[in-house]
């Protein structure tokens, strides 16, 4: 087992456990304000200090982890659930009309970053975590479609696929029974990478006010609210920022570890 896989798994597990624990317990209420206790530095009473409203930062981070993980996870699920079938269909009909339509739609979505898509969606429906999920999910669709199509195209030239065609199996059945299982490892690794990017995207959208809305805590909004108080209480901005860095680092290390574990070519190269 690689060091990246272990370290990434440990870092990611810490935040997942904190998010799950926040459903039943937090050190303090995330909605309870105590102005007399505002901007308190980390200490015994408040392990990570308090913000400008006197709220416990550790409690805010725990509930914020729940928000960030939920948004990123659902967004990746949307991207994978729609992008993978589209990529398989495009590869099965390479050079055909379906392939051309799918890939040109992917190019169109890639032309608009997730932040721009979020602005367009929120202009119509208003800012919310749901709209952030939709925006990030839409941006993930062409990522998984391209990854799946590229991997599937190389498999369509393999002998076992030709044997399946000779046996009379349809392209749809071959894609489901033979192509998809052989690209699953690649999709798992890519899913981990997109998950980390989803965490960053959610934080970015919340930072500009397009993500989860108050009173729901969000790491990005914690940074936005703390930016004017860096000189007074640096911990209010540093702790959420370092939390985002640690979460993204953990997911990237986990993705690298999974790639090493699931790619047999890397195993041979390191043997």
Compose a concise summary of this entry.
The chain is mainly alpha-helical and 271 residues long. Helix content is 72%, strand content 0%.
How would you explain this protein's 3D organization?
- With 271 residues, the protein is mostly helical.
- The protein has a single domain (63-270), classed as MetI-like fold, CATH 1.10.3720.
- The protein is built from 10 helices and no strands.
- The protein has helices at 3-21, 57-92, 97-110, 114-125, 129-155, 159-166, 171-207, 219-226, 235-262, 264-270.
- The two termini are 13 Å apart.
- The model has no long low-confidence stretch (mean pLDDT 91).
Class derived from helix and strand content? mainly alpha
Question: According to CATH, what is the topology?
Answer: MetI-like fold
The topology string of helices and strands comes to: HHHHHHHHHH
Biggest sheet: strands, sense, closure?
Answer: none
Radius of gyration: 22 Å
Q: Give the low-confidence spans.
A: none
CATH superfamily: MetI-like
- Terminal Cα span: 13 Å
Beta strands, count: 0
- Regarding CATH, which class? Mainly Alpha
What is the 3D shape? elongated
Total DSSP helices: 10
The helix content, as a percent range, equals: over 70%
Percent strand equals under 5%
